[in-house]
Design goal:
mainly beta, SH3 type barrels, five-stranded antiparallel sheet, 9 strands
């Protein structure tokens, strides 16, 4: 089975999410990951409603846990994290439909547990 690569981007200036995002759809002079854009990759996982889960999304597990989706550069994988620095579960171990998308860290920052390492839920 081949991997599907999809992206979305948070445009910081106007505070809008662009889905799907194509690197060819913005001006060549724009900074992809710097001051104007936060680019996020699709994890390959669908939530309980069939919606695509991307890096930066906030999800609820069937047991009630709330986590964010982060890229772990050391593990070369997406992780579900209870805070910015505490990995809770590897995304590869989650099947389609086991989580429900409840928001993302850009449009719903009130749902995101900050850097304190403690669960805020």
């Amino acid at each position: 089975m081949s991997r599907i690569y999809k992206f979305r981007a948070w445009e910081k200036t106007d505070s809008i999410m662009i889905t799907p995002f194509s690197f060819g759809s913005i001006n060549a002079g724009d900074d992809y990951g710097g001051s104007h854009w936060e680019v996020m990759q699709y994890t390959g996982i669908l939530d309980s409603g069939g919606r695509e889960i991307y890096e930066g999304d906030i999800v609820r597990f069937t047991d009630g846990r709330i986590s964010t989706v982060v890229w772990d550069a050391e593990m070369y994988s997406f992780q579900f994290s209870v805070s910015k620095y505490v990995a809770d579960q590897e995304a590869g171990s989650v099947r389609n439909g086991e989580v429900t998308l409840i928001g993302n860290i850009y449009e719903n920052p009130e749902l995101f547990c900050k850097d304190d390492g403690d669960s805020c839920h």
